[in-house]
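Anyone up for a design puzzle?
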């Protein structure tokens, strides 16, 4: 469903108004009062980061051994499409692409059609399980939505992936209502962040209203009607007072954001915490090497400087006058001091919690797919 926001400064931002399923979870772009952030990565961690933690070694979170994934090459994964028809046109795809992203119809056919087929099978199995349970209990409560979590860095292209999946999944006959929400709407308003000294950490876990986010996903998962999501404006870089996206009992809901795969950790002696990932039926992590995402981030920054930032109403209008060298230096500094920190400390450690990992190459094209074994 449309959100009246111009999605300007995110990895998958599309420079149009009222784009379907817009928004980007945890998008952050502020650095020492003068910044614009973004992050993403895969296996390469910069030298400034000293640990070599379990997620880089392919171990589980207890260090017990390799994560149980089946790895597919692009060609092997494409064969899983079977006879799934291509229902997107080039015109449709153009509306779904993000800034500087080169997703082609070939990639839709080879990567996203097999993924939509897999998810359709999972949703169908869940719906059948619901019917069996309802028969046993003798009730006819509303079906609960199948909830998909989508994580990854800002510049990696997860938002474009989410929009493509939303469009493809909505074309299957047994689940035509597919909503896409992003966790941007659950960022604390700038006034609150400023009061807490968190404006420089916008997009980090502590910058979100986690209680409201968890309550929202819990309400949707419980089958409640007309649940509201606050609207976030990337033009204003803030929550829009009084504006909401309404989620009304969809068959599927995709929740896209930087930190949505984080577990609910508790201190010794405390009750276990609930986190948004507890409500997901399936999770996807969009992955790429640090150096590749850094390059994509800088490229996108330069594009935004020449487009969205030229709007006088843009929070980042001050960057529109930067020369190429200045813009590259600014983007590199923000990446290094903010985005990379958030990526390595908060986002990358959640990668192996995903059911499926899409690994991109330097050309922004998915090269490998990892599917967790059941």
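Challenge accepted. My sequence:
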């Amino acid at each position: 469903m449309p959100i009246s926001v111009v999605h300007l400064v995110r990895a998958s931002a599309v420079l149009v108004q009222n784009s379907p399923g817009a928004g980007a979870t945890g998008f952050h772009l502020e650095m020492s009062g003068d910044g614009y952030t973004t992050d993403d990565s895969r296996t390469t961690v910069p030298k400034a980061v000293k640990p070599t933690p379990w997620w880089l070694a392919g171990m589980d979170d207890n260090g017990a051994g390799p994560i149980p994934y089946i790895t597919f090459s692009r060609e092997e994964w494409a064969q899983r499409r079977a006879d799934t028809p291509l229902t997107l046109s080039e015109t449709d795809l153009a509306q779904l692409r993000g800034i500087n992203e080169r997703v082609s119809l070939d990639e839709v056919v080879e990567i996203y059609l097999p993924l939509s087929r897999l998810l359709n099978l999972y949703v169908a199995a869940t719906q059948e399980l619901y019917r069996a349970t309802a028969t046993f209990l003798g009730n006819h409560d509303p079906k609960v939505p199948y909830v998909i979590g989508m994580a990854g860095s800002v510049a990696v292209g997860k938002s474009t992936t989410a929009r493509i999946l939303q469009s493809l999944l909505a074309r299957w006959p047994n689940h035509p209502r597919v909503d896409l929400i992003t966790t941007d709407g659950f960022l604390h308003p700038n006034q609150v962040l400023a009061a807490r000294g968190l404006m420089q950490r916008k997009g980090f876990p502590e910058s979100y209203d986690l209680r409201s986010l968890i309550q929202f996903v819990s309400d949707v998962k419980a089958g409640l009607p007309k649940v509201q999501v606050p609207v976030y404006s990337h033009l204003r870089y803030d929550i829009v007072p009084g504006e909401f996206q309404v989620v009304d009992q969809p068959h599927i809901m995709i929740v896209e954001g930087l930190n949505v795969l984080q577990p609910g950790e508790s201190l010794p002696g405390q009750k276990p915490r609930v986190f948004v990932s507890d409500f997901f039926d399936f999770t996807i992590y969009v992955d790429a090497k640090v150096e590749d995402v850094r390059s994509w981030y800088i490229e996108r920054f330069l594009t935004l400087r020449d487009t969205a930032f030229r709007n006088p109403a843009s929070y980042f209008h001050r960057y529109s006058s930067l020369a190429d060298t200045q813009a590259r230096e600014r983007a590199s500094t923000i990446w290094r001091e903010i985005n990379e920190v958030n990526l390595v400390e908060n986002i990358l450690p959640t990668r192996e919690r995903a059911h499926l990992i899409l690994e991109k190459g330097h050309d922004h094209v998915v090269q490998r797919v990892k599917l967790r074994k059941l």
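A detail worth pointing out: Residues 1-64 have pLDDT under 50 and may be disordered.
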